[in-house]
Q: What sequence folds into this?
């Protein structure tokens, strides 16, 4: 499966995450959670999906958690920390337009 | 009377039916009994000859010959839709009560019902349609049978009689039998009435010789009416008994590869289920401490509750398994391997052992280190024996350590799978499809059979175990409309098991007519329709292909919304004589399932139309529908 152009930011983000020193990460827990989520997303989702399947989706964190838990129902084996981190990352990078409802 | 005598001597009718037939012609009961006595020596001689040879010569109409050969081929049930040119066949059934005709109101669900019966019983059946017009309706399920490798025999006559064929007559198409050629193992047009039994016999022989698959037979309609004389031969006499053992040299090579492997992985499939070799697959896995998976198939062929079961690959390639990430040897036992992406299911960098009876498809996609062409039940016996012969204490120790490693994963995976219930929308109404599945899994009997035809429904929480626990009949060929019919056929074959049909609304409306068969035949199946009033799969795939396109920008999806007006599946069910209700929340579902159980205990089918939510990109609460209406064009109120 080819990596689509929409995946590239995620991969780059994951790579940059690996270069950030641990101490700096600890100072920014929210940012660290999102970055860990980006890493998990690249590692866990793209073995089955292309990014284009969900790149038009705009959801808040709770909405993205719903999406990810539905993947558990289809066989994805993720722990709660991974799901939280991926939802945080997705809500940050693909959140709802300001002032609009989450769905 | 001559016909009756012939039928009696050929054991086509019983003594009682013979006597009844004679008295119906005006002969007194005393005279009839006298005739019966006079036939005794001939009957005994005929019986002795038939028992010894399995062959008898039968005289009668082509339709009666057809019925005779069906019985000799082991058929109990005929699934058919009314066909006027089969009159002599119907006539023959009146005095042949062993051959039961099930009238199905549409050929598609009728064929699905027959396929469900064949899959669940392991016994032969035939599907009949009216000429090419009926055949066309059945061909969708013929395609499914071809993809699934189900040994189902189809028949339809040519409406054109032999004396007027080739004139573009009513219901005539040239080369009717060739229409089905690409998806049958055998298709043939009998050229004479006396060739009907031979054609039927060959159709059953071809269908039931592994690898299984559908077959088709046909003849001109006037052959059904003509009197003829033909041999009727029992299936046993023509069955080539394809119980093939694998090449012993290859078995030794496979055994060596497996015992020396760092992390072997077994992929199982339908041949294991069909050959009742699940226990043997378990034995092989346990011997080696080998993890087991299964790429998409019809049946579950390994207990999902077993400590060595690592789950199915979520992306249908073994590389998408969470564990083991790097197997060095993969053995496939009986899986057809449906490759749905350019990358093969088994990656090129592992040593691959392929054990199957379907030699024609081996090596087409996968490079194969060790091919084991075999009946998998015999193949597993030989492989287990070969491995046991080379097992040493150190190999056993390594296998035990590997089994522990696999179990650490499976214990962890079990906990992760349970997280499905943490979904923040768990209590939503309309319901999450996952919640519906979870509630049904809690409700289902420990040995329930689940028939599944819902492309957007994840099948978690059931813990299928074909060794005495729950079983799955999954849709595989994907010609929609098979679920309800399949469930009816499964229940017909296994009346003492709870049968639950899970079906999406889109699939359901392709084939609800089998509900009528459930009501008429008292087949107490629980049908659950996951009704989101939409085609979810096509919606998601379209969005994936045209991400950010005009459809997403405008919300104008022309192809996927089935609401406005919403379909009420409970009304549809009641129209076929099946009690039903609409369910909108988890609490309602629990209560409705209790009512469904009560109905089935009393022998009645029941349907739940469960309202589930639409999730995914760009679904609106009230989706747009194309503005096509004739209302404004009407100028007359007619």
A:
């Amino acid at each position: 499966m080819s990596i689509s152009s929409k995946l590239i930011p995620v991969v780059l983000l994951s790579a940059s995450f690996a270069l950030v020193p641990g101490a700096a990460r600890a100072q920014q827990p929210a940012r660290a959670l999102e970055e860990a989520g980006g890493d998990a997303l690249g590692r866990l989702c793209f073995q089955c999906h292309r990014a284009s399947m969900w790149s038009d989706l705009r959801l808040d964190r709770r909405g993205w958690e719903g999406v990810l838990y539905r993947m558990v129902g289809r066989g994805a084996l993720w722990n709660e920390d991974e799901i939280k981190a991926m939802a945080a990352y997705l809500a940050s990078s693909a959140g709802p337009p300001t002032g609009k409802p989450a769905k | 009377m001559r016909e009756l005598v012939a039928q009696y001597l050929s054991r086509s009718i019983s003594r009682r039916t013979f006597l009844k037939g004679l008295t119906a012609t005006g002969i007194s009961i005393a005279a009839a009994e006298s005739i019966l006595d006079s036939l005794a020596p001939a009957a005994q001689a005929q019986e002795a000859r038939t028992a010894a040879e399995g062959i008898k010569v039968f005289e009668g109409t082509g339709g009666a010959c057809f019925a005779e050969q069906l019985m000799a081929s082991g058929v109990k049930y005929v699934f058919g839709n009314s066909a006027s040119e089969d009159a002599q066949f119907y006539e023959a059934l009146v005095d042949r009560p062993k051959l039961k005709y099930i009238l199905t109101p549409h050929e598609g669900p009728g064929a699905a019902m027959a396929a469900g019966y064949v899959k669940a019983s392991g016994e032969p059946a035939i599907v009949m349609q009216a000429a090419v017009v009926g055949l066309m309706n059945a061909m969708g399920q013929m395609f499914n049978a071809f993809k699934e490798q189900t040994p189902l025999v189809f028949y339809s006559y040519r409406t054109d009689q032999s004396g007027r064929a080739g004139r573009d007559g009513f219901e005539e198409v040239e080369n009717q039998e060739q229409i089905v050629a690409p998806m049958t193992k055998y298709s043939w047009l009998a050229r004479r009435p006396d060739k009907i039994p031979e054609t039927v016999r060959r159709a059953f022989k071809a269908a039931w010789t592994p690898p299984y698959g559908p077959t088709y037979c046909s003849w001109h309609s006037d052959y059904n009416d003509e009197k003829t004389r033909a041999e009727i031969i029992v299936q046993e006499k023509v069955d080539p008994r394809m119980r093939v053992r694998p090449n012993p040299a290859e078995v030794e090579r496979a055994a060596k590869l497996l015992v020396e492997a760092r992390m072997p992985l077994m992929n199982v499939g339908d041949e294991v289920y069909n050959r009742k070799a699940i226990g043997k697959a378990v034995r092989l896995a346990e011997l080696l401490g080998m993890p087991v998976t299964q790429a998409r198939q019809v049946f579950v062929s390994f207990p999902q509750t077993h400590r060595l079961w690592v789950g199915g690959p979520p992306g249908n390639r073994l590389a998408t398994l969470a564990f083991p990430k790097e197997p060095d040897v993969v053995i496939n036992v009986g899986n057809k391997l449906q490759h749905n992406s350019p990358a093969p299911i088994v990656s090129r960098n592992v040593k691959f052992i392929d054990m199957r009876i379907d030699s024609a498809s081996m090596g087409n996609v996968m490079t194969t280190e060790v091919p084991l062409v075999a009946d998998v039940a015999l193949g597993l016996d030989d492989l287990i024996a070969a491995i046991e012969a080379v097992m040493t204490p150190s190999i056993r120790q390594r296998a035990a350590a590997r089994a522990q490693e696999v179990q650490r994963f499976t214990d962890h995976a079990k906990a992760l799978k349970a997280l499905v219930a943490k979904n923040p929308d768990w209590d939503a109404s309309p319901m999450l499809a996952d919640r519906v599945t979870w509630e049904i899994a809690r409700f289902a009997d420990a040995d329930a059979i689940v028939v599944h035809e819902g492309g957007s429904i994840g099948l978690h929480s059931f813990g299928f175990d074909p060794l005495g626990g729950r079983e799955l009949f999954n849709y595989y060929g994907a010609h929609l409309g098979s679920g309800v019919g399949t469930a009816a056929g499964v229940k017909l074959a296994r009346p003492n098991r709870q049968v639950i049909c899970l079906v999406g609304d889109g699939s359901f409306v392709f084939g609800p007519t089998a509900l009528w068969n459930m009501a008429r035949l008292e087949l107490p199946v629980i049908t659950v329709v996951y009704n989101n009033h939409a085609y979810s799969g096509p919606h998601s795939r379209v969005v994936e292909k045209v991400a950010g396109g005009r459809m997403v920008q405008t919300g104008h999806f022309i192809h996927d919304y089935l609401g406005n007006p919403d379909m009420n599946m409970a009304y549809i069910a009641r129209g076929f004589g099946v009690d039903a209700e609409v369910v909108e929340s988890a609490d309602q579902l629990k209560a409705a399932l209790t009512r469904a159980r009560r109905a089935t205990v009393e022998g009645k089918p029941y349907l739940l139309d469960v309202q589930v939510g639409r999730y995914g990109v760009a679904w609106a609460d009230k989706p747009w529908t194309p503005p096509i209406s004739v209302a404004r064009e009407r100028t007359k109120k007619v």
